[in-house]
Amino acid sequence: MTTFAALGDSITLGVGDPAPGGGWRGWAAFLAESMPGGRLVNLAGNGARVSDVERTQLPRALELRPDVASVVVGVNDILRAGFDAARIQSALGHVTGSLSAAGAVVLTMRLPDPGLMLGLPAALGRPLGRRLQVINEVMDQVAEEFGTVHFDVAADLATHDRRMWSADRLHPNERGHRYIAARFHDQLTARGQHLGPRPGTEPTSPPPRRLDTAAWMATKGTTWVLRRCTDLVPYLLVMALRECWPGPGVPEIGHAS
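-> structure tokens emitted (257 positions)
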């Protein structure tokens, strides 16, 4: 049996890919199906940040003594005030190093730019882009230090195809989740891991109707935006002002880098 512990946020939880029986499915489930006797324990949490993964998910993962573990997180850190690059680097190093030391093959990911995915104006998207660069550079360093299986989503043009993403533009849809699983499968087999057939990349569930998508945006999507507006939008506006009028006089919000 191959135990796969999946750590991270809503992307790993499977948001964007509804399971036929309810709940979410996602890339980790597709990848686990290709592992010999694959047993997936999905520890990911909606809205999780790097600190949540370190504090809550890592101890549970280590108890499982997993053969494979994934650490895919950072989007929520980018999208909230209080961004602390040094703390993020320390936590990601601790999480990945601990899993590697426990004997797990660790999967990591470079993230795509949320500003581009959300279609934000350049002045508002640049602060997010800088944060993303910090996260990705840290993950690159962690991947090199601990020899993880590292998927560069940011540089993969296929992942920027609008057909890969759900209505909120932050979570993959079924096609996107399947693509992530297939790419990790490719890299694992290239490193000598014995896996079953590559996960299929074509969706098997019917696509959501336009009415369903519109309903999601009008209800849950609106709630998501309002929740983020309480601290993200003020921060982005301040950062945009700092770029237009550099120098003292514009207050800082949080600990952004």
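Residues 248-257 have pLDDT under 50 and may be disordered.
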